[in-house]
UniProtKB/TrEMBL annotation:
<dbReference type="InterPro" id="IPR046341">
    <property type="entry name" value="SET_dom_sf"/>
</dbReference>
<dbReference type="InterPro" id="IPR011990">
    <property type="entry name" value="TPR-like_helical_dom_sf"/>
</dbReference>
<dbReference type="InterPro" id="IPR019734">
    <property type="entry name" value="TPR_rpt"/>
</dbReference>
<feature type="domain" description="SET">
    <location>
        <begin position="169"/>
        <end position="312"/>
    </location>
</feature>
<protein>
    <recommendedName>
        <fullName>SET domain-containing protein</fullName>
    </recommendedName>
</protein>
<dbReference type="InterPro" id="IPR001214">
    <property type="entry name" value="SET_dom"/>
</dbReference>
<dbReference type="InterPro" id="IPR053185">
    <property type="entry name" value="SET_domain_protein"/>
</dbReference>
<dbReference type="Pfam" id="PF00856">
    <property type="entry name" value="SET"/>
</dbReference>
């Protein structure tokens, strides 16, 4: 079981690995995470000071070193890093001109050989310079490198996480007006129904086992993340920051951001920035064959509009009320503020009624017999219209799939083709042409006569029943 201080330490370790790999920006960001999680450990600002020095962020390096000195007074490495920053900031001149006391000089620009040399070159006191050199020698002989390299190989071996393919050119992440605090994804070019918004591989996933096993497997996966992915993972939103639902923040982040991936739960760094709506304009799906999660536009999304997916699994977007959906979302620890859940009372009740009705219609299709085919098709059309009226842009195939079977049963091949095409095109637009969902219905779309009950019923025409 990991606690927050272990997560902070892991961030530092991965920061060190990034540092060794000369990825100073990632190292800096990881040390920042460590500092945010554990504000009392001097090593984190000490290491960030070093990363800031490498990034020529002199002011920040000075501040970090000062912070490390507050937590660990007289720390030689912190003094050295602050001195290096101050030298770059030109502050050593001020120290020399002022002929400060040794203590003040220490504070201002200790401790490196070039500093002492500069001090002498600028007319500094040679006795003091000798004292400084002695101090440097002592410090060097007792110094342990702050950035370990010994275990960096193990860590870099673990970098083999799946890489993210992120189509960020089509959307941008910024603050969402729907939320009091938090980001969302916004279109930066116009999407049409069926356009791919995003395609990425999860950085890791775990099997949906019992809670306890799940915790330890999540922690094991987190330990194995590359520094870059761990940094991005720690940057994700945590809805559980204020509650005590989980023993550490990594588990809170996992719970806030995990996607259902074909019986597993996983983290997709880019998709994690998409907020939920009960009438989403996009949908995510995971293709187990390719291991890729994709988000497709369900309708036109103009430039600047927020792109929403739904976190509600299965067919639960309709057939229920706002309250019911809120209960489903409560495990994610937020109150849904989507446009549907923000409707005024009267409109909200109408929405609830429509959603319940959509499901009633869907269920009634199965209750109608072969002799009631016209009625069945009419219910299907009504269901699709009601879905549209409610702003549910997906799931029409829940209805049209049966329509193809009905028409093929009565040997109305023109209508069967119309409905099987409708189903196939719906699935291609919502899940992708290479998705298992599209593959399931491709055969009957290509040849409606391959539907098992095809041609078995009395001949009948339904060409007047269309959406
Ligand atoms: C996967 S994250 C989505 C991105 C997140 N907003 C961010 O800033 O990174 C899920 C979290 O976003 C917020 N969120 C998403 N959809 C929401 C909605 N419909 N209403 C309120 N909060 C929502 C909640 O805090 C939720 O736990």
């Amino acid at each position: 079981m990991m606690f927050n201080r272990d997560i902070a330490d892991l961030a530092k370790e991965k920061g060190n690995a990034a540092f060794v790999a000369k990825d100073y920006a990632t190292a800096r960001s990881l040390y920042t995470h460590a500092m945010t999680i554990d504000q009392l450990n001097h090593v984190y600002p000490l290491n960030r000071a070093m990363a800031n020095l490498k990034l020529a962020r002199w002011d920040e390096a000075e501040t970090d070193a000062t912070k490390a000195l507050e937590l660990s007074p007289h720390n030689v490495k912190a003094l050295g890093r602050r001195a290096a920053a101050r030298r770059q900031l030109g502050k050593w001149r001020a120290a020399l001109n002022g002929r400060h006391s040794r203590a003040k000089a220490l504070d201002l620009f200790l401790i490196s050989r070039p500093d002492v040399q500069a001090f002498i070159d600028h007319g500094g006191d040679s006795t003091y310079a000798a004292q400084e050199l002695k101090a440097i020698e002592e410090a060097e002989s007792s110094s342990v490198p702050a950035v370990p390299s010994s275990d960096s190989k193990n860590l870099s071996d673990a970098f083999a996480n799946l890489l993210v393919e992120d189509g960020t050119s089509s959307y941008t992440i910024r603050d969402s007006p729907m939320l009091s605090k938090g980001a969302g994804a916004f279109a930066i070019h116009e999407f049409q129904r069926g356009d791919l918004v995003l395609s990425e591989k999860p950085i890791f996933f775990v099997r949906n086992d019992s809670d306890r096993d799940e915790f330890s497997s999540i922690e094991a996966k987190i330990r194995n993340l590359s520094p870059g992915n761990f940094d991005k993972f720690l940057s994700l939103h945590n809805s559980h920051a204020e509650c005590a639902c989980f023993p550490n923040l990594a588990l809170g982040i996992f719970s806030t951001n995990s996607f259902a991936l074909n019986g597993n739960s996983g983290i997709c760094l880019a998709a994690s920035r998409f907020n939920h709506s009960c009438s989403p304009n996009a949908r995510y799906s995971f293709n187990a064959n390719t291991g890729v999660l994709r988000i497709y536009a369900l309708g036109r999304i103009p430039i600047g509009e927020e792109i929403f997916v739904t976190y509600i699994a299965g067919r639960n977007l309709y057939g229920n009320t706002r309250q019911f959906r809120q209960n489903l979302l409560s495990t994610r620890h937020f109150t849904c503020a989507c446009p549907v859940c923000s409707l005024p009372e009267v409109e909200s009740k109408m929405s609830d009624a429509r959603r319940v009705k959509i499901n009633e219609l869907r269920e009634s299709i199965a209750g109608l017999s072969h002799t009631e085919s016209t009625q069945r098709l009419k219910v299907i059309v009504k269901g699709i219209h009601l879905l549209k009226e409610e702003g549910i842009l997906g799931d029409a195939d829940d209805f049209t799939n049966v329509a193809g079977i009905v028409c093929a049963y009565h040997s109305d091949w023109v209508s069967a083709e119309y409905w099987t095409r409708f189903t196939y095109e719906t699935r291609v637009a919502e899940f992708g042409v290479d998705s298992p969902r599209a593959a399931e219905v491709r055969g009957v779309y290509v040849n409606p006569k391959s539907i098992p009950m095809a041609g078995r019923g009395p001949r009948k025409k339904f060409t007047n029943i269309r959406v």
